[in-house]
Automatic annotation (TrEMBL):
UniProt-listed PANTHER family: TRANSPOSASE, TRANSPOSASE DDE DOMAIN-CONTAINING PROTEIN
Domain named Transposase InsH N-terminal: residues: 2-90
Protein name (database record): Transposase
InterPro entries (alphabetical): IS1182_transpos, Tnp_DDE_dom, Transposase_InsH_N
Residue ranges occupied by any Transposase DDE domain in the UniProt entry: 364-489
């Protein structure tokens, strides 16, 4: 045989033969004609192409005609053309890719490669297939909309004075209000038999001018409504790919960031395999953790025992969610690195450097004065989570020799503390500094950051080929599917199967 027994293409074919393609074949059930290449075979070809860093549909077509491994996968079928491959990836695979990916994860679990024990979570920004100069900013939309509303009110006043009417407009019902006024002006035109004129040298009547301006305002407002609908809580989007948000990309070796349209890609890794994928439009990792874990649990039917993540995922909401799910969290506090510095330990203004009496619920400052609770305020996060904040005030800061180092306030020092957050942060800190926590933190940097390093550098995947959130998710899941098969093949070759964690090397 020309293809060796231990070639990755044979392992791929063996794994893919064991998957259920019901959802994939359902996508073809309404087309009314038999596909030129069987969907299962086309999926094999596409996956093997991604395993070998071939992403262009034209290059895949070329490989099917020239590469013996691709020919072997085709099983005698005619090589698909680039349009068939592109159509399959964009249209037919979209509804089935997630199901196929998690079937692979379940297969890895069945053969003992994945135990659903330690999930290492991280995210990265990947550039969208969109022009970087097609941005729409929420701030600019709001600013221009407010200016236009002022102009509209001015025009309405002029109309009311001219025709002795009492029209009013509100921001909430602006389109309907303008429509009513336009209808009134059209009736007025018919009653007074005024003819609208166009062209150079013709004088427009006052009614025609009012009508034309209002129609322009009406169209502009429709455009603003469309922009606001597409923004949907975001600060920006791209006209070329409306699902993409403008994010800072670490482009060069100095991590200098540039603002480009992209997606926040989240992955979960266990035993070096990617076991979960999420595509988000939010630039912050903080709000992605809960929907990401929910999506993984619903697809796998299992939840992980331990969640290991960096400081970008730390929030009171995330801590409480993981506690409610009985999942142990190893999330590095955002102030973890600062805590180790001598300058932080010597800073008397920091809450961490004050003595706290839990029974009396009061802090003691550097001068021996007590900070006692004076009230409670509530803060709502971007995700809608409501946290309770206790406000503490020092009993007396007058004539305090340390006041300039402690606070800039003219009166007594005040301090806002979320007791729940402080308590959960301390638990997480104890978890990550334990013997097991240190081992898991080391593995997080090796496994999940290592996976992104391979995907972005070795696989040279730095920009999506498709557009739209669903298509992008399909594309990235296909890449991770290929990554997992390659990883399994490498482990088999190196006799590293069922090795789940890397040990700590002691210098």
């Amino acid at each position: 045989m020309l293809i060796p027994e231990d070639d990755s293409v044979r392992l791929l074919s063996q794994i893919l033969e064991g998957l259920n393609y019901e959802k994939l074949y359902k996508a073809y059930s309404f087309t009314g004609r038999k596909p030129a290449v069987e969907p299962k075979i086309l999926f094999k070809v596409l996956t093997y192409a991604y395993m070998n860093n071939i992403y262009s549909s034209r290059k895949i077509e070329s490989a099917c005609k020239r590469d013996i491994n691709f020919m072997w996968l085709l099983e005698g079928s005619k090589a698909p053309d680039h349009s068939t491959i592109a159509r399959f990836r964009k249209e037919y695979l979209a509804d089935a890719m997630e199901d196929l990916f998690y079937q692979l994860v379940q297969h890895l679990h069945e053969i003992g490669e994945v135990k659903f024990e330690h999930l290492f979570v991280d995210g990265t920004k990947i550039e969208a297939n969109a022009n970087r100069y097609t941005f729409v900013w929420k701030k600019a939309i709001n600013k221009n909309q407010a200016k236009m509303f002022t102009k509209i009110q001015s025009y309405i006043e002029s109309i009311n004075l001219t025709y002795m009417t009492n029209f009013t407009v509100t921001k909430e019902t602006l389109l309907n209000d303008i429509e009513k006024i336009i209808d009134y002006l059209k009736k007025k035109k018919e009653e007074e038999q005024i003819e609208f004129v166009h062209g150079i040298g013709k004088r427009k009547s006052k009614l025609q001018k009012f009508n034309e301006e209002l129609e322009k305002f009406y169209e502009r407002q429709k455009n603003y409504n469309t922009h606001n609908q597409l923004l949907d809580g975001r600060n920006s989007y791209s006209k070329t790919d409306p699902d993409a948000t403008f994010m800072h990309m670490k482009d060069d070796h100095m991590n200098n960031s540039q603002l480009k349209p992209g997606y926040n890609v989240q992955i979960g890794v266990e035993s070096e395999y990617v076991t979960g994928v999420g595509i988000f439009q939010d630039r912050s990792d903080n709000t992605t953790l809960i929907p990401f874990l929910n999506d993984m649990e619903s697809n796998l039917g299992n939840k992980y025992q331990n969640i290991i993540a960096d400081c970008g995922y730390e929030s009171e909401e995330n801590y409480l969610y993981l506690e409610e799910k009985n999942q142990k969290y190893y999330i590095k506090p955002q102030t973890y690195e600062k805590w180790k510095k001598k300058s932080f330990k010597n800073d008397i203004s920091k809450r961490e450097n004050m003595v706290y009496d839990k029974d009396k619920d009061e802090y003691t400052c550097h001068n021996g004065k007590q900070l006692r609770p004076i009230g409670i305020i509530y803060r709502t996060s971007a995700s809608g989570y409501r946290s309770e904040i206790t406000v503490y005030e020092c009993e007396d800061c007058n004539n305090c020799p340390y006041k300039s180092k402690c606070t800039k306030a003219r009166g007594n020092r005040k301090m806002q503390v979320s007791k729940t957050f402080v308590e959960k942060r301390q638990i997480s800190y104890e978890n990550i500094t334990s013997e097991e926590g240190i081992l898991l933190r080391v593995n997080r940097s090796i496994q999940v950051e290592g996976a992104f390093g391979v995907l972005k550098n070795d696989y040279q995947f730095n920009r999506f080929l498709t557009r739209g959130k669903n298509s992008v998710k399909t594309e990235f899941m296909l890449l991770c599917f290929s990554y997992d098969v390659n990883k399994l093949h490498a482990k088999i070759q190196n006799e590293r199967c069922e090795k789940h964690l890397h040990g700590i090397k002691i210098a």
